[in-house]
Amino acid sequence: MHKPEFDNVSVGGIATACVGRKQLAVLVGQICENYVEKQSPFVIFSNNGHAISIYNSDKEAREQMDQADLVHADGQSVVSFSRWFNKTNVVPERTATTDMIHDIPNFYQPTLKHFLLGGKETSVSKAGEILAQTYANFDVVGHQHGYFTDDDETAICDAINAAKPDVLWVGLGKPKEQIFCIRNKHRLKVPVIISCGGCYNYITGEYPRAPMWMQNAGLEWLFRMANDPRKLFVRYLLTNPHAIYCVIKHGLAKRTPA
């Protein structure tokens, strides 16, 4: 198995990869290149304020996150947090999942086969069409909406394996997508699994991206909340302060002598 090399830094208790956008995209491609049958999938999860809050308050979510092979900085806040208590190992830049799905075909030229799982049928199918039309090296070999039960998972995994993708994108929302990935990891014969939340809706334009200045300032969450306050206001109101508290708690604990 190809063992990618990267440093980690603890951000809110979560071991987060110190990788940039190009490095992460190429790393995914190299894992696919070197994949051999019967090898366990390389699982990639994301870290942001919501993830930090869940990780520190839900034992099951924490156990799922700890089983990932790599956790990347989906939120700009994670990039900043990584520098609060560290001088050397820090996250160089944000690797938002909504960018990563484009970064892979942009930075890794060989064609990879992708399977998109999650979201509404209309959203995931349209996202697949857009990606395949935009990138000649992004081969969409299948898709499946996210409205299924636990009893459906075996059949879904069989369909994914039959399609033989290199990368499986799982967009079911936290913590459901992490639970699905870890619970079915032994069933899936794919090189890489990436959790991707609501990524498909951004590809289709159903969810707008924040202006670049807000993304760079770590304020994309504010833009998203303003666009969907009914769904996101309470979430951000509760999780953002809790995430900051957890980052400080873990950072101070690391500095305290045993």
TrEMBL record:
Keywords: Glycosyltransferase, Transferase
Pfam families: Glyco_tran_WecG (PF03808)
Signal peptide start-end: none
NCBIfam families: wecG_tagA_cpsF
Name of this chain's protein: WecB/TagA/CpsF family glycosyltransferase
Native species: Rheinheimera muenzenbergensis
